[in-house]
Write a structure and sequence with these properties.
Length: about 400
Amino acid sequence: MNKTDKKKNLSILLGAAFLMATSAIGPGFLTQSATFTEQYKATFGFVILVTIVMSLIAQLNVWRIIGVSRLRGQDVANKVFNGLGYFLAILVAMGGLAFNIGNVGGAALGLNVLFDIDLKIAAIISGIISIIIFSSKRAGSIMDKFTQVLGGVMLILIAYVAVISHPPVGKVIKETFMPSQIPTLAILTLTGGTVGGYIIFSGGHRLVDADITGEENLHKVNKSAITGIGIATIIRILLLLAILGVISNGNSLNPSNPAASAFQISAGIIGYKIFGIVFCSAALTSIVGAAYTSISFLKTLNKFINKYENKCIIAFIIISTLIFIFVGQPAKVLVIVGSLNGLILPITLATILVASKKPDIIGDYKHSKVLFILGWIVVAITAYMGITSLSGIKQLWI
């Protein structure tokens, strides 16, 4: 392999890692993390630790099997049980569309903070930026660079706020490894936010599209998967420190926008503008990740989508943007699809684990027994999370 090919492969591997990480770090995550940090203080470090361990187990299982099999998640599922892949593809696409409406709204809010422009106009701008990426014949490489650059911007800016907020680092370390409480709900919620729905497949499908597959490339797949979880971890830790520093100094966060108020309290108007950049970056990368992965789940099940993949991704973004502009974020739809989305991780992970024992899918590859056992433990935990989330549907009709 020459230097050009090595550089291209490295860019794809990093792009896959950042695609996964930035898909997990969306606008909802920022708000959620601020809320949980205010509620659990330094103990939120323990939540991050447990979440990352469970997410890494899930991601390594999924990425290794789809990598070795050279198949996308829905194709693996159809080989395990005929028709299961169609069910998962529809579920992932529905969830991706519903949450992409929120991503468009998040990007619009970020632009509003930066430039004080109308939310609907900001939403149109956000949609156009995302559409431009997939209008190019080099959409894959542009997407890789886009997620890397914005992911790096988020890292730097959150790190800056973390430093100037003077968080109690010693207390965070203590509570991370010797917690004073076990926040079960926060652990379950954050695990779903890290590798739930389409997110766990986003980077893995990018590697399949780039043909970095097969047992001979397993070390690259592992490296990219671990890097993705590592990037998400660093951003989460920095965000915890940034917000905890504000809270520890006796400040209260604004419940209507806790993340924004944390940044503003730390660094005044500059902090508020930094929040706008971070929020917009998180939302834009999530729009790209949700659209790309949702369509990647549908394209092998439909010849038209497979032939016009980029145009279908653009249509997906346009639909998300129009729904936000004309309907807003339909609460009932979001709750219903969100509840169903909570069931995707245990189903997909269980399917992957079953596939890991089928020679007609993975050939002669021998999957790690440790990952296999730990994977089933994560399935059990996340299944409980998914069943709990179904209460959201019931509440709609009370």
